[in-house]
């Protein structure tokens, strides 16, 4: 595209105004095309974020936030409380932040690890000449086609203690029924199982694409040199997958960390539950009981900061791996 | 996309290495069959329960009493069809608006170098990380002030903000795979940059558009958190909200729930299978070069 070329060799150093004008002349088209996105993001993400940050420094809740009832407008009476909210959360005074964070991390790691390994395994199996390949692929992608909330409800039915199909199976084997969604450890295992079921197809499809983009010659050359299948996997396939893996793992971690529906619909709607992750807890703060807008915003900002740190760290690691290669 | 890949067995002369022993073949097919069964089972189970009448779910292992009463009940005596219509309006609106907005931005980022280019790409990535928990309260207040709470438009724009960054990011990667010579040819023939984008690049980017459209649609179709809070009147419920009313604290109408689940999953599945041919191509283009 011509716009990419900057005018070189214009001798007199232009003043800032001319420069701005020239920059506008060259780039207005690009800017016009990104404008809708920028507006959408600014209004719907930027402004709410700013407001979220602001709320996290106040004591806003349902009672003192401004609102209009009929024709009467009640002015907001919440006030700034500085870093109080953060202090309360981070010092562990309320909300059991650290235990929740611990479980959120365990949840994210186990889910993403299982997504990735199972997805990789299935992709490797599918990435070879095979009868019924197309059929297998469609069947394996199926969980992705089912909306998450529908799938979660279905699993809840299957996990049902009294009438669930799993306990019915156990019963025919002579095993006592298991309270899948009642016990807090089992709850967590069940939630991970549901999320793994939901998330594997995405990984599988992405990795399958990655596998197909690895040049065949590399495998053939390695084989000529007498590499065993394991060596070929370790030294050709895995490095070749690195760009895809880096992206999908980053996305997987972000999505799982923020995975609301599975936890909320499977277990988290009742009273305080140990199996809630940070996001569902923040949601409950904001919309249950006396709505604690400030507390919820604080949690939101903390979640965002954690993810940002992770993303930066992740990119660094990837860049370093690239460099050492 | 598999038909043109070099993987087909016909693509190269038969070699000893391509052959598998019988045992390996059996193991391979067994693994895949078991995995497919796990993938399929919950879906089949829900279909099965939905056909068993109102109380059939209490006997999940018996094969008797099939009827369609669950379906007739939810279609005739609940607001299911209204909710369904709401979901269609909201999801389609979010998809069309989101994909169009994301495509222009993705194209600009892919083809033009302009100040703000890098930071925009970064924004797309960072916005992915926003937990809805940080946005939902401020958005709730903003939409309240604009009187867009409990309206289709409010939910549509909200969903756009969720899906647009990812779509723009992926489409940028997809546009990168389309040779720039095509643009140049278009420009030589006198098309404006937008004309080039609209008439030449968009048709070529159909697989990428399919994937992003699919993504937006599914995200909107299955979104729970925003819809639960924003759509307060029963007339405006989307399916994700409506479905919760079947299985609440007081009652557990699992029979009705499963029938509704089937009817909800069918359109999502249809969209999915329209898009799935393009999924691998679109995803990897976006994923690797993002």
From TrEMBL, chain A:
User: Which PROSITE patterns does the annotation name?
Assistant: ABC_TM1 (PS50928)
Task: Give Gene Ontology CC terms.
Answer: plasma membrane
Task: List membrane-spanning regions.
Answer: 28-49, 105-126, 138-158, 189-211, 248-267, 293-313
One Pfam family it belongs to: BPD_transp_1
- Write out the annotated subcellular location: Cell membrane
The processes (GO biological process) annotated in the record are: transmembrane transport
The organism's superkingdom is given as Bacteria
Q: Does the keyword Metal-binding apply?
A: no
Please tell me whether the keyword Isomerase is annotated for this protein: no
Matching InterPro entries, A to Z?
MetI-like, MetI-like_sf, UgpAE/MalFG_permease
* Membrane topology term: Multi-pass membrane protein
> Where does the record place the ABC transmembrane type-1 domain?
101-314
Instruction: State what protein this is by name.
Output: ABC transporter permease
Q: Which organism is it from?
A: Streptomyces albireticuli
Lineage of the organism: Bacteria, Bacillati, Actinomycetota, Actinomycetes, Kitasatosporales
UniProtKB/TrEMBL annotation, chain B:
The protein's topology relative to the membrane is: Multi-pass membrane protein
- Identify the PANTHER family for this entry: MALTOSE TRANSPORT SYSTEM PERMEASE-RELATED, MALTOSE_MALTODEXTRIN TRANSPORT SYSTEM PERMEASE PROTEIN MALG
Q: Which GO terms describe its biological process?
A: maltodextrin transmembrane transport
The primary location reported for this protein is membrane
Segments passing through the bilayer: 26-51, 88-108, 120-140, 152-171, 254-275
Q: Does the keyword Phosphoprotein apply?
A: no
**What is one cellular component GO term in this UniProt entry?**
plasma membrane
Q: Could you tell me which residues belong to the region Disordered?
A: 1-22
Which InterPro entries does the entry mention?
A: BP-dep_ABC_trans_perm, MetI-like, MetI-like_sf
The alphabetized UniProt keywords are: Cell membrane, Membrane, Sugar transport, Transmembrane, Transmembrane helix, Transport
- Gene3D superfamilies for the chain: MetI-like
Family, similarity comment: Belongs to the binding-protein-dependent transport system permease family. MalFG subfamily.
- Please report the stretch or stretches of sequence annotated as the ABC transmembrane type-1 domain: 84-275
The record's subcellular locations are:
Cell membrane
The record's GO molecular-function terms, alphabetically, read: ABC-type maltose transporter activity
- Report what the protein is called: ABC transporter permease
Specify whether Oxidoreductase is a keyword of the entry. no
| UniProt cross-references to Pfam families, sorted A to Z | BPD_transp_1 (PF00528)
